[in-house]
Design brief:
Blueprint lengths: L12 H19 L3 H16 L5 H24 L1 H59 L8 H51 L6 H15 L2 H24 L14 H25 L7 H16 L20 H30 L3 H20 L9 H8 L1 E2 L4 E2 H19 L1 H11 L1 H6 L4 H27 L10 H11 L11 H20 L4 H26 L1
Antiparallel strand pairs: 1-2
Helix pairs in contact: 1-4, 2-3, 4-5, 5-6, 7-18, 8-13, 8-16, 8-17, 8-18, 9-10, 9-11, 9-16, 9-17, 10-11, 10-16, 13-14, 14-16, 17-18
């Protein structure tokens, strides 16, 4: 049935569904002793494994028997594979030829109905406003014996009644538009259900992509989209425009054929991704961390102390260490382990006071920030470590593929995968969201708020250690005051990425994107030769806009 020759008036949907059900019954009968039986037997095995009343020997015996039946069912399944394939192809062909034209026609009808409803709504609103204007003018005249306050009250009642009527018209209008949209979407959902049954309860990759796209289009709302992604779009346009105007400003070609500048941005952003992911967990708990910059300074001192190619120019309690006799690989491991241990200890101290005494992380991390800064300054006598061994630097943070692709990006990707797994696939991750959203409710439901909070601080400390280590290697030297301002960049990255300060809302992807955005913005502005102080102004404006959008999303929900 072609779309051109299709007519809604003559289309028999019941007859089409009847034919589809016939295909479904044929496939169900065909699979009854094969794939369907396998599924049922596997479910039965799962139930037996969980049954605590059955002995282990009886479990083994029963499971062994069921596995034998599964083998037989697989043989049956293999026997009808070609017949099933042919029947599925016929069913899908019939579905596409008969349901797709109907779906396309209903979409066109929906456009017409939406246009009619919009026009009707405009007329109703216009009529309502005209009637109100006429009534209001008449009502301005005070009634006999009525005071001025009583007249104002009566007029205010009229205004509220009018506003209520307009609001009701708007709600009815939105409902009608939603009903029109939903009616069409339900047809597509029927198609997806049919495809799912034809494929033995699964969709093929191309069918899944089409279904996800349809779902996205159905749920898409331009206002919500701009509210969630407006800042990203603006930053992307800013980045592209700056790159395009760079040659005209005499700054050279930014978008070079080998994408060296892009890779350099990712190289600089990679350590910051670790820091952003660390503080993201604290922000998810409606907290923050002011000690990140000092953690980076501590990490730079420890890392470079181990990796300099000669006697340290920086004393440790007055002693100038010479670690060059230790093999390079072992020094790298020692530097990373010691760095992570120290950053985790300090982060855990702040976490303990926040978790045990309900101290806001702003205060506890401000305390550890001052302690770290003071200790590193005293211990190192405010001296530089010197430049780290170039061979060790290249081994850790070098570049691959013709000196373009940074090794640090690989570490960042691994970190993203691990943290994403913790946040989204573990019980601890789910508890994080619960505690961040409502700690009292989480506590009542049996979640240990103390240990979840401690866990988040410990995880942050580990990530700070790795991020500080990689940043120290990337920069090539260390000093007690290195890392100043890193805390604002990390927090800003999370805010720009949509991790809400109200707690319980946010995604890993947001923190990652935010870290890349802020690094790219700084890199591009520096590339163009913009004064650093103007860069501070722009970064501050971006933070305020990001938080404003976050507040707007919260107010809209409320």
């Amino acid at each position: 049935m072609s779309v051109e020759n299709f007519s809604l008036e003559t289309y028999d949907l019941k007859a089409v569904k009847h034919e589809i059900h016939i295909f479904q019954r044929k496939l169900a009968d065909l699979r009854k002793d094969g794939s369907t039986k396998i599924l049922n037997l596997e479910e039965e095995i799962g139930i037996i494994k969980e049954d605590k009343l059955v002995s282990s020997e009886e479990k083994k015996e029963r499971i062994s028997g069921l596995k034998e039946q599964i083998k037989g069912a697989r043989e049956v399944k293999n026997g009808y594979r070609e017949e099933e394939k042919t029947l599925v192809a016929e069913a899908k062909t019939y579905l596409h030829e008969n349901l797709d034209p109907y779906y396309a026609a209903k979409k066109e009808e929906a456009k017409r109905l939406k246009a009619e409803e919009n026009e009707k709504y405009k007329q109703e609103v216009g009529t309502c406003k005209e009637e109100f204007a006429k009534t209001f003018e008449e009502a301005k005249q005070p009634l006999e014996g009525e005071t001025s306050d009583q007249t104002k009250t009566r007029l205010n009642v009229l205004k509220r009644t009018h506003a209520s009527r307009l609001f009701e018209l708007k709600l009815n209008h939105k409902k009608k538009l939603s009903d029109i949209k939903t009616e069409v979407h339900e047809i597509y959902l029927d198609k997806v259900r049919y495809l799912n049954s034809f494929n033995d309860d699964k969709l093929l990759p191309n069918e899944k992509i089409a279904a996800n796209f349809e779902r996205y289009v159905y749920r898409f709302n331009i206002k919500d989209f701009l509210l969630k992604n407006g800042l990203y779009i603006v930053m992307l346009l800013f980045f592209v425009i700056c790159g395009l105007i760079a040659p005209s400003m005499g700054k050279g070609q930014f978008f070079d054929p080998q994408f060296k500048n892009i890779f350099e941005i990712l190289n600089q952003a990679s350590p910051r991704i670790f820091l952003a992911l660390g503080v993201a967990g604290l922000i998810l708990l409606a907290g923050t961390d002011l000690s990140i910059g000092r953690m980076v300074g501590l990490a730079s001192v420890i890392t470079c102390m181990f990796l300099v190619p000669r006697v340290n120019t920086m004393p440790i309690f007055g002693q100038y260490l010479d670690l060059t006799s230790i093999p390079g690989g072992l020094r790298i491991i020692m530097a990373l382990v010691v760095t992570v241990i120290f950053t985790t200890i300090f982060s855990s101290i702040a976490g303990f006071f926040s978790a045990k005494f309900k101290m806001h992380p702003f205060i506890s991390t401000m305390g550890t920030q001052l302690i770290i800064f003071g200790l590193t300054a005293v211990v190192t006598e405010q001296k530089n470590t010197g430049v780290i061994d170039l061979s060790l630097k290249n081994a850790i943070a070098g570049k691959l593929f013709d000196n373009t692709f940074p090794l640090l990006l690989i570490y960042a990707i691994i970190c993203i995968i691990i943290v994403s797994f913790i946040w989204n696939k573990t019980k601890f991750g789910k508890n994080m969201y619960a505690v961040g959203g409502n700690p009292e409710a989480a506590s009542v439901s049996g979640i240990s708020v103390f240990w979840v909070t401690m866990g988040v601080f410990i995880m942050a400390g580990v990530l700070y250690g790795f991020g500080g280590f990689f940043e120290a290697v990337r920069s090539g030297s260390g000093k007690f005051d290195y890392g100043t301002g890193f805390e604002t960049d990390a927090i800003a990255a999370c805010v720009v990425g949509g991790i809400s300060f109200s707690g319980g809302v946010g995604k890993i992807s947001g923190a990652v994107f935010g870290a890349i955005v802020f690094t790219a913005m700084t890199y591009v502005l520096t590339f163009l030769g913009i004064d650093p102080y103007y860069q501070f102004i722009l970064r501050g404006a971006v933070i305020i806009i990001a938080v404003t959008l976050d507040c707007l999303k919260y107010l809209k929900k409320k």
